[in-house]
Every structure is written in structure tokens, then in C-alpha cells.
Amino acid sequence: MGWFYNSEGGIHSAGGLDRLVKDVLLAPDFQPEDLQGFSAKSELKRMTNHANGSPDFPAEDGWRKASVEIPLPKAKVKHDSEDHAPVFTVENIVYRPLLASIKAAYKDTAAERYHFVPFRLSESRLNQDAPLPAQRLYSEAYNTDALLRLQSTVQEKASHDREPGDSPSMEYVVAPIGVYSDSTHLANFGTASLWPICFWVLSLTKYIRASPTSFSAHHLAYIPSLPNLIRRAYEDIYGTSPTEAVLRFCKKELMQQIWTLLLDDNFVHAYAHGIVVKCGDGITRRLFPRILTYSADYPEKCLIACIKFLGRCPCPACLVDKAKIYLLGTKRDMWSRLNSLRKDTSWLRSTLARVRGWLFERGLAPEGKAVEAVLGPTSTSPNQSAFSRRLAVFGFDIYQALVPDVMHEFELGVWKSIMTHLVRIVTVVGASSVNELNARFAQVPTFGRDAIRRFGDEVSALKKMAAHNYEDLIQCTIPVFEGLLRPAHDRIVRKLLFRLAVFHALAKLRLHTDTTLSVFESAVKTLGEAIRTFTTKVCPEYDTRELDKEVAARQRRKAKKDSKGKAPAHAPKNAKLQDAERPRKEFNPNTYKLHRLGDYPASIRETGTMEDKSTQTGELEHRRPKRHYAHTNKNAGFMMQIAHHERRERFARSAIKHGPQVRPARSKRKTKAGLTNGKPEDLSHLRLDTNDDEPLTPISPLDHFKISQEQRYHEDVYGFVYANEDDPVVENFIPNLHAHVLTRLLFKDSAPPSDYAPSPEDLAALRISNNRLYKHKRMLVNYTSYDMRRKQDSINPTSHPDIMLLAPPGSSHQYLYARVLSIFHVNVSFARLGFEEMFTLHVLFVRWFNLDQSVPWGFDACRLPRLQFAPLDDEPFGFISPGQVLRGVHLIPAFAHGHSNAALPGYSIARPDEDEDKDWNYHYVGIFSDRDLFMRYLGGGVGHQHFTDTSTTAAPSHGDGNDSDAHSDSDMDSDAEHLVASDSANGALFPDEDLPSDDGDETLDPGNDSEHEPVDEELDYGYASSSQDETDSDDNAEAVGEDADVLGMDG
Fold this sequence. Notes:
The protein is 33% helix and 16% strand. It is an alpha+beta fold and 1051 residues long. Strands 15, 16, 17, 20, 21, 22, 23, 24, 25, 26 and 29 form an 11-stranded antiparallel β-sheet that branches. Strands 1, 2, 7, 8, 9, 10, 11 and 12 form an 8-stranded mixed β-sheet that branches. It has a 3-stranded antiparallel β-sheet with strand order 3-6-13. Helix 16 (406-429) packs across helix 17 and helix 18 (467-481) runs antiparallel to helix 19 (487-507).
């Protein structure tokens, strides 16, 4: 431990020290004498040399350095041609040949899991024994239209134009790759940065590809930013500093020159004729490399597409005018997207060549009037794309390869700007409203392993928030903002937040169908209408000003601008301005990021789900060079050092992967039944304390649930009832427990007859061993998600107690909801069965919720389902089998409706101690808290097996006096569209709307309240029957997490 605290090594956590001891020092093959004469520097050098000479890492695939030249234009300075213009040389470009990198990726053993032949994926199912029309599924890149077209072209070549020397049996396949690039800071302090370019093989499933630990990302180049030395070089040549327009030209030119270096003659030849590779699965194929997608944030897209940043036509994919972006979702907007696409045509290439000639031969300014007259209407820059020069002849169009990005465009774009403006509005309302907003966010419970994280105490400051923070906000924000604004505005904001959450949930789905894409297309329309309503009816009513964060940012920008050529200046700290001194801030809907949302449904059909091409995967990969930067000497050559570390890490991972797999033995604690160690038992609760230790072995994927069978923490059932005799929780506790246990013993998996009641004789024959309940800390629940993945929830009465169950057939709502108060097991025998064998039964003691039927809910009403605790006269407490639990559910307090003890007067052990003898009057079901919950309410989840016919909307509101706006919802929601799945795969899921005129003033047609939807449920899809309740075997248990969703960013 002294070394841990005194060393300057890279182990900074107790977990890292544990891994060093357990995985290295205690490994069976560890021999201390092997470290005699060890030198880290020598071993790193030897590792590099060995990696570069190994079959898995051929020399042609190694890192190398290069330089590129950028021509320097100057207004009113003429040259004979561009070739005779002065150039600036950018050195230290670290890269790997693109073609060699693709070959290495396909030679890797990971190729055994590649899908070399794209295919159409579809599903069909029965509804009341009648087959429904088959519908197409969109999940991976190899299910998409774009890759199917590319494969068809390659197969056409295989049939009629095979390469000389190829045998008839050699496969011709597409090798699709997705490219990502973006700059990143390497340290919290200083200016060190890196600009990596990476690619992924899209033939590998995204569930593996998106995990950084899978090493699926192939680093292609580390490129420098445009050096500041260019200013000095330009001044030495022309005697004056370059203008901002010239610097923008040079920055774009640097990116294009680097891609020209990567798209070398070898790659172009392979693009046309393919390349023969013996793949990692042992089969030799002719691969035709294709760049299917290019993921980047907006500034990076402008560099790649050679367009102006936030110009008149800001979109890299189409020529929509920026002033018309607010028409998102209208007929005019959709028509404009389809009929004004950017295209890499021969006319454009010849025009750019002519304009570039003007810059150097006639001395025109890069953004002068003559250049703008030609290129200004399309916001094109006078730079020629490397992709256009090298690949346009083969039909490749870089404009269409630049795919939308949900992280930067929605989470850090549209949603961030709306959330910021909502905070401005709440600030105008008053400081008490801001405090209430912060208090509500702080009380939102967490959910899942990391689906919803704990919010800070001052969310309104919006400080140090990453994309996942904004994702959590959109999933939980509807109950938080309820009631903070005046009623008319509150309803508009509620509808806006609901539409945003629906759009976000659809954008984040990892599996789409024809039905959900139809829903998505309609969601674009309704979101556009909601944003226009918010902009015109809410925003003008508030005098919104800059937030403190925005004031500080503006002052920093001003200080930076004023300090040019001087000593660094700093913005004044804690600068407090009066409202009158703060500039007014208005909400601007005419942004590129809002416009791009309309392209999402078509992009999913064309190149795969949004999660598949999100820059989130690339941002996660930035962690690797940041970690390697700490191992460099941080001098000017750190990029090559990072490249060497990347190579060594990949080689070490390959060696471990192919070496002997040794796992440390898992220690198991054996305890005697009834052993009571640890802290004294508290006879007033059935919950274990968070500090109580109860190991739980991993759950088998074949089991629906797992609860420990340890018997260290027990409770005498009669002592528990006696200690809490005044608490309604224990009313009829023992008779109800006996009846529940007896019913499960007699009927096992079958439901008892509706008129069944245990007889006194049967109850008298039931014995609970020692009258003891053995308490447990948590329960693991397996379920199949909408995208046919194994998922797992952890149910804990202390931290994550809320569950959902399937409602009985014929119920008005498809689910039941409960809060788990205790998890325990009993050892029971039943003499009337003829033998005294002991059975172990796990039981959940729950408090029931009722669905509030007094207000509408659902996608048409733009409301979340609202629950309230069952009153004392409605059997609020009960026992259920763990096998009945479908999964966990996220319940968010309805903050606007306050607390009371109406459902449970006085102190009760059913509440946590911090709740002060009161419950929230209502809770909202967080249907947006993760993708699977969303699909259970939307319907159509492929992995949800059971199919029922029920409405997702409660009866029309008749008002109960508790809902502040229940009386006026009929007026507000009469124009709400249904977001409900239809029986037809291609059916209209929203009613048609009268779309707006050009001024954007539009209204929507009333929805049809008579429509119903088929809703998917799940009946333990793929798991064993609930008879597993009685014996939880640890034999052959394996961790679900090993094959579960590797994306890790649940939502």
C-alpha cells in the first residue's frame, strides 16, 4: 500500500490495485524470476518491433509520417497557376495506409463474426392465429438499402466482369467501413490536442463494434491542427497577415490534402477492382472497399464537404435555405429535402476548378464578391474535395455519406438549446421557481445501472454537462417542469417536452421496423409543429436574458479577443449583472441541427439506425489516445508515440486473446442456515440495510430471476407483526402470507380458479419452518428487450424498488405496478401432500399502485401514465411470486401535486425514513427512461412476445380536482395526433394533418380517439418456467453481462 500511495505510476484507484494483485501477481503463470533485469523502455521497444513484424500486424499496415502542402492565396496577387503559388508545408502527419488498414481488419480473427453478405431482415407474427403482413427490420448496416445496392453492383461485376485469374468460386463481397473524425483535447490543462481519424468495419454488429474494449475501432491517422506558424509564414511571403477567410480556406485545404494522402492510388485501384484477402475466417475473398458513412460533428462536416460554416445553405446534404428551417416536418420542407439535394456533379467540379483558378491566377479573395456570386447561393467553399477528385468517377458522393448525428444534433443541439431557453423562462418567472426546478431534479430517482443517473443540486446552472447528462434530462424532465409556468404555457411546454422525448426515443432505437419508421416520420411533423407553437406562443411572453453561464462565456470571448497580441487576459470572476445589463436572448429555431432531424427516418432506411453511426462511439474511442498521452514525453513528437502505444496495446490484446485463458477462482461463502452475524436485527423492518453484505452469484441466462438463498438475515414473522401492530402494513400479514404460499404450492405455475379460497384445513396443514422469513437484499430479473437482446434489472427495496407486471387478461391497462417492500424466502412444508418435504419459496412483499383513470394519458394526450398508491380500503399490500415480475420500472414523483398521507396515514415501515410519514400523491411512469420501456408502451417491439389488443389511452378526463389543468386538456389535446402502432406495417400512425403555409402558422387536425393499437407484451421470452422459483441452482451459472448489450449507455 505504501507503493500505491507513493508511486507516480498509472494506478489511481483501489480497483486498479486489486486488478494488479489478482490478475497479475496471483495469476497461476506468474513467476517473479521472469522479471529479473526488467526494463520497461526495452520491453516497449521490443514489443513494437515484434508487433510490426508479426503476421497479425504486417509492416505495410504500420504507422508512418508524412507532410502535405497547402497553396496560399492572396487577394490582388496573381500567379501563373495554382502550381506556381507559394505553399505552406504541414509536417508530422502520422497515418496508416487506408487500404492496408482495411486488409488488416479483415485478416483479424474478429472477421469470424463479420456478416460478409448483406441481407434484408424481416419479421412476421400471428395475431389471433392469423398471420400479419411481414414487415422489414432495420438494425445493422448490413440490413440497409445502401449496402444492398452496393452488394448488387459487386455481384453484377462477379457475374459479368470477373477479375483475371479469379476462380469461379471466389466470393466477391463489399467491405463497408464507417469513418469518424474529430479533434479532442488530451489534457485538462494546456493546449495539447489530437485530431484522430478512425474507421470501423460495418460488417461487424454494432453491439460489439460500439464497445471500446472490443478494439473494433481502427485508428487511421492523427492529424495536426492548422499550425499557428502559418501566420508567420504567410507574412514572410506576402508581407501581411492572412485574413480570416484565407485561414478558413487553408484549414479546409489541410483536411482535403490529408484525405488525398489516405485515398492513394492503391485504394482507388482496390475500389474499382477489389483486393484479394484471406480473411480471418480462413476464406479467401475479393473485397471491394466502400465508405458507407462518415460520422462527424457539424464543423467537421463543413471541412469534409467544403461548405461554409452556418452559411445560407448550412446543410451538407441539401440546399435548404436557413430561413426556412423552422418549417420542419411540413410538406414544403419534405419536398425541399427531396428536390434540392447536394450532388457532386461534373458541373460542380468544373466550377470549383474555374473558381480556384481565379484565386491564384487573377488574385481574387477566397470569399470576395466575384467568388460569392458563383458559390454563395449554395454556401460552397472554393476547395475541391479529395473524395470528389478520387472517387466521384465511381459514383461516390461525399455529401450523402455525411450522415446525421443524434448526439451533436439533438442531445447537444436542439434539446440543449430548448432546455437552456426553458431555464431562461423559469428564471424570468422568479428565483423560487428556479429553486423548485433544482429541487425537483435532485429528487428524481436513479434507474437501472446507468440509464438515469443522479442529478446534481443545481441543474439550472447547466455546468459541466455532457451528452449523457442531457439525455437523462430529456427522459425525466416532463414531471419536473409541470406547474412551473402559467397553465396555458404549461400545457404547450408539456406537449413540446413529450414530443421531444418521443423523437429522442425513436432516434435512439437500435432496432426499427417499417411501423416504427412510419411513427418516426409522423413524429418529425408533430415535433416541428410543437416547436413552432412554443416559439410563437410562449417565447414572446417572457423577457429572457442571458444566464450566468452565458454571461461568463461572453466575457471570456471578449477577453480573448481583446488580448490578441497581448498577455493573456481573464474574464472577471463572479461577475454579477443586473437583468437590464444582460443582453436579451431569443429562441432561434432556424438552426442546422433542427433541420437535420427531418432526415433521420430516411437515413435509417438508407444506412442503419442512428445509434449505429452516432459520434458517441467515436467520442468513446477518444479515451484511448487520451490515456496513451499520459505515457508520452509530451513533446512535439507525442503523436507518433501515441501511435506506437496504440499498436502495442492492440498487439498485447491480441496476445492475451490467443493465449491461455485463466480466470481466478471465485470464492464462495458457505453459511449455516439461520446464521446471524453482523449487526443486530431490527425487528421493525423487512428490508436489509444498504451496508449489509449479501453476495449473489451471477444469474444464468436461462433463469428469469435470481435471489440469494442465504439465511444469515432472518425475521420471526410473529415478532415482526407484534413489533408493528399499529402499522396498516401488517394487517392480515400472516393469513395473507399463508394463503399466498399455499396457493403457489398447490397450483405452481397455473392460475387458481377465480373462486378459489384456501380452506381452514389446508391452512392448518401448512408449516413455515421456525416461523422465519429470510430477508434478501436484491433480486436480479432477466428479460428480453425489444431488440431481442438479453437484459437484466436489479430490484432492490432500498434503491430501485419499483416493478411492473403483466395485468390479467381483460384489464383496462396492460400492466400492474408495485413497490417492493421486502424480498425474502420461507422454508415451508404441507402435510396434506402426504410428506414433510421442505420447499423453499421466494416471495416479494409489495405495495400496489393504481392507475389514475381521472386524466388521459398516452401518445395522443402527450401525457405519461399517472399512478397513485392504492388506498387502505383497496388491499394496498400483498405478496407476489418473483416469477411474475416483468422488469423494473422508473417511477418519477409528480412534484406539482405534492405530498400527503391520505393513502397511508401516520408512520409506516412501508416508507423510507426520509419520507417523513408522507407519500407523493402521484407518480409518473418514466416511459422514456430506457428504450425497452418506451417500446412496451408504443408497441411493436420484436422481442416482446405476447400480443394483446388494448388502448394506450385512459378514458377521457372527467376531472378529479387534483389535476390543475385537467379541465382544459380537452381543448389543448384536441389537435394531438395518435402515436400508436396500427395493424398494418405501413399504416398511417398519425392522422393526416393540414400542413402550414410558408409563414409557418399551422394547426393540426383533431386525432381520432377511437383508434386502438396492438400492444406487445412479454411472457418470459426465452426463459425457463417459474418453477425455477423453488430451487435456484448455481450450477452452470454465467454472467448475463458477457453477452448482453455492450453499448453500455442505456437509455
